[in-house]
Amino acid sequence: MLAARIATRAFRAPHTMRRFNSTQPKHPPQFEAAAPPPPSRHIGFYKTYGRALSKVLLMTFTVYQGLHLLWWSLENKDSQTSKQAEIARLENEVANVSGVKEVPRMSLEEKK
Fold first, then answer.
1. Which residue stretches belong to region Disordered (predicted)?
2. Could you tell me if residue 82 is inside a domain?
């Protein structure tokens, strides 16, 4: 008998349980489906143009990086040319000062 009472109390819905206060709640909670807020204008803009903008930004970044690599390559080649000219000038100056007619020369590729 006691087990049956405990089992029925355990499966009772919460609204059928005995209350220990004497007053009813003033405003019972009501669960109404609220209307969804209107979509933001920013969201609409990026849904419409986001893919195109991302493609343009990716292409500009790629072109910028390619041009930067080209500039770096040309700058490096120019730097090597000027360094080789400076080395040749200094070797000629050493040859003139020391009186040696032939100075052994090494290119930058052989030094590596």
1. 14-39
2. yes
pLDDT in tens, 57-85: 999 999 999 999 999 999 999 999 999 99
Output the six-digit token pair for 92: 């000629």
Q: Which domain does 70 fall in, by range?
A: 43-98
Residue 58 lies in a domain: yes
Query: How many structural domains are present in the chain?
Result: 1
**Mapping DSSP to helix (H, G, I), strand (E, B) and coil, where does residue 100 land?**
coil
For the residues of 50-82, what is the DSSP string, one character each?
HHHHHHHHHHHHHHHHHHHHHHHHHHHHHHHHH
Would 25 be classed as within a structural domain?
Answer: no
Q: Would you give the end-to-end CA distance of the chain in angstroms?
A: 98
Q: Which residue has the tokens 């080209």?
A: 70
Q: Encoding tokens for residue 10? A: 């355990």
Count Cα neighbours of 89 within 13 Å in the Cβ-side half-sphere.
6
